[in-house]
Every structure is written in C-alpha cells, then in structure tokens.
Amino acid sequence: MTDIFHLLQSSPLAFIGICLVLGLMVGSFLNVVIHRLPKMLEREWQAQCADLKGDLSSAEAAPYNLVVPRSACPHCGHKIGALENIPVISYLLLRGKCKGCGAHISARYPGVEIIGGVLSGFAAWHFGFGLAALAALLFVWALIALTFIDFDTQLLPDSITLPLLWLGLLFNLSGAFTDLRSAVVGAAAGYLALWSVYWLFKLITGKDGMGYGDFKLLAAIGAWLGWQMLPLVILLSSLVGAVVGITLIIAARHGRNIPIPFGPYLAGGGLIALFWGQALTQGYLQLTLS
Questions:
Q1: Per residue, what are the HEC states of the chain?
Q2: What's the pTM value of the predicted model, to 2 decimals?
Q3: pLDDT tier at 163 (50, 70, 90 boundaries)?
C-alpha cells in the first residue's frame, strides 16, 4: 500500500490515469444513481402517504435501491452482465444496442461516464496528489449526479445535497479549498442568497421562482469553496441559465411558463469556480482596479 501511495505521489501521470479510470467507473455508477434515486424517493413518498392514510392492504413492495434489482433492459428485461457494463467500451462493442433485443441504448450513459472520467482526470491534474484532489473528485461526482437528476425530474435530492454540504465543511477543517470560517459563512450565505431571491420573487409575482433544493445546492457549494466564490458562481449560473432559457423559448421548445431547472447551472458555476475561481476573481479585480 505504501508503494502505491509513493507511486501516485511521485508520478503525476499515473495519478491522473488512475483518477480518469476511476472516474469512468464512478460515472457508470452515477448512471444508476441518476436513474434510480428519484424512483426510490417516489416509492418512499408513496409509502409514507399510504402509512398516513392507514392503508395496510397493499403488499410490501419488492426491494428497490441502488444495488437491487440488477440493471436490466427496460424493453426486454435482459439482465446486464459484467462484460456489458464496462464503461464506454461495452457501449461501443454493443454498438449502442441491447444484447438481448437490439433496442437502442441512450448515448447519455457513456456520456455520463466520459464526463466523470474527464473531469476526474482533470481534477487530478489540476490539484495533484493530496487531500484537495480527493475532495475535488467527490465534489465533481456529486455535481454530475445532481445535474442530470435535476434535468430529468427538477429535483435536487436532500440525500445528495445535505451530505455534500457537511463534507465540504469537514474537508475545509484541513483547509482543502478555503478556511473553515469562510466555509461556514459560505454555507449560510449560499442558502440565504437564493432563499431571499425566492421570497422576493414570490411576493412580487405570487409564483415559485425556484425550489428549495437550489438553496441547499448553493449552500453546499459555499461550504466547499467559501463565501468569496459565491458571487462568481451566481453570476456564471445566472448568465448560462438566462442564455439557455431564452434560446429554448425562441426555439419554441419551451413555453414561458414551463420551468427550467436551475441546479445544472449552479453545478456548472460551482465547477468553474472550483478549477478557475481564483484566477477569474483576480483577473476581474485587476481589470476593475487598473
């Protein structure tokens, strides 16, 4: 074990390669999380509602979690074997089709794996071997899962956002990205910033402008990166969200009253701030002070 740590510490290329492969493997697992976690939450809510109504007539549901049942083709029920579950490679060998029935497999599955691998390898290169790289990997993987879940369901599950917040505070006990004081203030400021916008918008329009999950996600980003990065994250996410929203409306793909998830843009802003936040902030300050 000591030899492995020494190799990773002394060979940046080996560390980057291992993190890239690990990111591909985690990306495969994230596909499961993205698909199953919303369904698990829905089952939990239905069970709670039935319990409140005193409905004891329904039979106990079969286990459904991130492990059980095995992944299967939704068209023919073919169980996905180990050789069919190799990140990216299996998709290419199968030519994007189910081995059992030949149904098309969404390109998003290898896409998530590639995103996980590329971002993990980049995090390893950017931070180098150490605590910051480990923290960055966990941060990146959580944001990938939240991004696609929000795209699909407009949900940002507490089971990801809240542990992400606490992990950010714990990592910053050792100053992984910022000091603990900045992390705590960042968590509070992140939540209160969007909470204030939500209630101001609701008082003016009588409508909900965003969900509580967005507050918790920005709080988590603040806990990881510190309050100093929050203006940059909010600015970047708002700009990208506005451009995408206007584009969708002009292209007639979205009505004005159809909500657009904001979580993916917060996640994108958080990733940009993670890798380039200091440089962007310093560049901005130099321009304004010059």
A1: CHHHHHHHHHCHHHHHHHHHHHHHHHHHHHHHHHHHHHHHHHHHHHHHHHHHCCCCCCCCCCCCCCCCCCCECCCCCCECCHHHCCCCHHHHHCCCECCCCCCECCCHHHHHHHHHHHHHHHHHHHHCCCHHHHHHHHHHHHHHHHHHHHHHHCCCCHHHHHHHHHHHHHHHHHCCCCCHHHHHHHHHHHHHHHHHHHHHHHHHHCCCCCCHHHHHHHHHHHHHHCHHHHHHHHHHHHHHHHHHHHHHHHCCCCCCCCCCCCHHHHHHHHHHHHHHHHHHHHHHHHHHHC
A2: 0.92
A3: very high
